[in-house]
Amino acid sequence: MDSQVVAMDESFDLLRDPYPLLAQKRRDSGVFRGSVMDWSKTPDSLKPEHLYAAVSFDAVNRVFRDSKVFNSKIYDSTIGLFIGPTILAMEGKPHRDHRNLVSSAFKHKSLLRWEPEIVRPVVNALIDDFIAAGEADLVRDFTFEFPTRVISKLLGLPEEDLPWFRQRAVELISYTVKYTRAFEASAALKDYFLAQIDQRRSNPTDDIIGDLVTAEIDGEKLSDEAIYSFLRLLLPAGLETTYRSSGNLLFLLLSHRDQFDALQADRELIAPAIEEGLRYETPLTTVQRYATEATELEGVHIPAGSVIDVCIGSANRDENRWERSEEFDIFRKRIPHITFAAGEHTCMGLHLARMETRVALECLFDRLTNITLVTDDDPHIWGQPFRSPKALPVTFDAVT
Questions:
Q1: Helix, strand, or coil (residue 91)
Q2: What is the rounded average pLDDT of the residues 217-227?
Q3: What are phi and psi of 14, to 5 degrees?
Q4: 337-340: which pairs have CB atoms within 8 A and are 24 or more residues apart?
Q5: How many CB atoms lie within 10 A of CB 107?
């Protein structure tokens, strides 16, 4: 790797708060040579020679939308090694065809059914477990739990498999740290999902795996490999980001008491609060793309073969797009953020994620009052590129 390609300045606490440095970088240019990622634990064979980072909204938006020049095939040599070929790394017609097949499992009428039948009961069951205590850690007891339970029910997995399923998911998404264990988790999940697929071929079910097994467009069905690779992709996409984004929003609201109180008094503010939380504390701050040809981005020359950090978190705080961009404000004028990416790789689960978070807030507000963040141990949002609070200790009264 080029010795001049350096990660972020050590004078900044990048895990606690990367945003001051990102703001500094944006003032210099929308793109810089270097990386916002920690490559220290990555095997040398996986490290790219040329690294650049897109940090302005315009630069990030262009990278996402120009999939011919900035494609996502880099994932074939990173997480794709562990989860197999998926739409994450596909481009053009193969991507469109697979996306159309897979998206049938997330159709609008399914969301309408999932909310009362699955999501709301899961959320209320979790609140049942801690409501009598008058205190809880909303990360451990709530935000970490409900997306996992929702996804497992949407997939139609047996409840007793949940602990095993969650552990394999954690091992899989930790591939940059313990890649041998990630390979083992990937193989175990492949075998597990193949058994689930076979069961549904014999006995069709009304769940996501059942939908994927029967999905057909122009006479084409998904292969077993495409199905289990997608299901492995669904773990970091469906669990990691939703649990983190909901935890971020709760922390931000509890840390801005006037906005929290306004939200409790007016449920119409839930939707804008969710969007502001996604903008201000993006759960996945950075993804990557590969430059298929030499190009120029925001006046910076990008050599062919470069890897570009697409800094979503930085783009969402671009002062050229939002006034007071470094402030959390649920009342601000709505300007679309880019948390769910853009272009043909826009996140398919964005409607499910928003619905899950809305239901989580509604159920908390319905059943708890006087929710107060306990600040003795300085709870805060932390991490890079995944960000969320490690704990959210609260006290509350039960609504009677």
A1: coil
A2: 78
A3: -75, -25
A4: 337/275, 337/278, 337/279, 337/282, 338/57, 338/60, 338/61, 338/64, 338/312, 339/245, 339/278, 339/279, 339/282, 339/283, 339/284, 339/312, 340/278
A5: 11
Pull the structure tokens for residue 90.
């596909």
User: Among 14, 54, 37, 19, which Cα is nearest to 338's?
Assistant: 54
Structure-block tokens of residue 133: 């205590």
pLDDT per residue as tens digits for the range 367-377: 999 999 999 99
Residue 118 DSSP class: I
Residue type, 218: D
With a CB cutoff of 8 Å and minimum separation 6, the contacts of 219 are: none
Dihedral sign computed on CA atoms, order 164, 339, 78, 91: positive
3-state SS, residue 308: strand
Q: Containing H/E element for 149? A: helix 146-155
pLDDT tens-place string over residues 147-163: 888 988 888 888 888 88
pLDDT of 146 strictly over 60? yes
pLDDT, tens only, 238-265 = 777 899 999 999 999 999 999 999 999 9
pLDDT over 60 (residue 1): no
In the chain, the amino acid numbered 382 is W
- H or E stretch including 372? strand 368-373
